[in-house]
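Hi there,

I know you've been waiting on this one. I reran it after we fixed the sequence typo, so this is the corrected version. Both the input and the resulting structure follow.
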Amino acid sequence: MEDAKIIELYFERNEEAISETSGKYTPYCSVIAKNVLHNELDEEECLSDTWLCAWNNIPPTVPNCLRVFLGKITRNISLNLFRKKNTAKRSAVFEPIDELEECVSGRENVEAEVDAKALSEYLDSFIRNLPEEKRYVFIRRYWYGESLSDIAKNAKINETRVKNILAKLRKKLREELEKEGFSL
């Protein structure tokens, strides 16, 4: 079913919207939840919460891209669930987030000073303009939270190359954000 039709079902408050969403987007959202939670039961709980959150937010929200909308919900729910269950420990799941902090540290200051939409649009443009290999590595690390070894294996490159690509991209992102006037 097309995304526009699924969104229409949400606006009609037709429960078929949830089953259509689940049927179409479970594989995509599962990857995101799995890379954060590493626990099948928690992944299932996260997906259920994702569908409920979509139900509660559509309407009034009209997602431009349903896939990205659901991915963002899944990622946020996964991270919150992980934090809740692991408050005393740190894990490799936060490593990708920690890596990006050097580019956008002081989030509260950034959010207070910069329109979040402008920053989001800039990041989309930055990612879209990356060469294919670098874009793949960046997205797999910072959106899906994949390990360096998994990225290297799937991209058919060595792990050192993945580390180098990510380090250079973080440096480039930081420089470009500063050049564009974003407060870091």
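Quick highlight: Confidence is low (pLDDT under 50) at residues 105-115.

Best,
R. S.
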